[in-house]
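Question (not urgent): is this output format expected?
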Amino acid sequence: MVERVALSKGDFEIARMLWSIGSASVRTIHAAITSDREMDLSTVQTYLRRLEKKRYASSRLDGRLRIYNAKTRPITVIRQAVDDLVDRLFGDDAMPLVRHLIEDRGIEADDLDDWQCQFRLRVEACHYSSIKHCLGHGAFNASS
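Got this back:
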């Protein structure tokens, strides 16, 4: 996994817009952002340049127009941000975050059911992977 500098709140807002729109010029992203709130065109341009410098986006010239593209998927950035949050705030212990999400953020029963299914799939995948690893190293053989 490529380590990148964390995104600021503003960087993330522009990155989210870039993921939503796809390839876009500064003006296109500016128009989309300003439909929700005020932001100068030059500010959008600065954020896009920062995203490019941090390797979250790339750009190319199309005539005189610079077109920006996302280089990372949203899930990758979200995972990095959550991992960083858990490391910094909770000393690598995710349970306080899980408790907070359940107790204070109103996680619904359906969400918990989905989480349990994801957890079971992860455990089963790890178990299956361990068995494959052991089989590959002769831990199980036909005579046992």
